[in-house]
Amino acid sequence: MTTPNLALPYIAAAQAQKHVTHNAALDLLDGLVQLSVKDRDLAAPPANPTEGERYIVATGATGGWAGWDGDVALFSGGAWLRLSPQPGWRVWIEDEATLLVRSGGAWITLEAALGLVTRSTDVTLALSPNGAATRLTVAEDARDPRGPTVTSSIAIHARAIALCVSTRTTSAITGAKLRLRHRRQSAKFGGSLGTAASASNLGIIWPEAFWADTHRPHRQWRRPPAAPRIAIHAFAFTPPD
Predict the structure, then answer these.
(1) Taking 70 as the threshold, does the pLDDT of residue 55 lie above it?
(2) pTM of the full predicted structure?
């Protein structure tokens, strides 16, 4: 018999070699408490595991892990032990520095499990049951604007709503001016950007929809300035499945 939650073995009355059962329970506890795994992308056991190492077994497991997809594999006593996760288990993924939670038969991020907003360049703020989403996005570029006009590598994407284009002057600029141009509007997002080191500008506009991918040209005068950083802040949208 085992315990109902962690499947730890009970010591039976009048059992011989009670230390074997007791030590087996200790091994399981040692593997489960403060659960942290090395990796979650391996489908087969590593060649030279270290005692006490733990892994979340990837889909399509083979070899000694065959049939263990999604389970925790613990190397203990020179052999692999299978730990079947239960709803609510939390595990730290060491190579990703990420905390996961067991929910709905899968490992998901803590943010997804709790409905939290995570820090990212593309964050979902609202999500329908069929996948329709309202997202907040930011993209960043640092390009040396050598020439009268240089186009950024980032864009306000088609069917996005732009909120702001921000800039940061990474090093002092002398003898030059820099503007952010939009179509025929020469200073839509910044008329005369600061030239001192660390100068910044927030080119805030009324929310404006863009119907095609739109890159931001840098417009400069006189000799080339140092490369500024540019970031595009926008709402983006995903249709339902």
Answers:
(1) yes
(2) 0.59
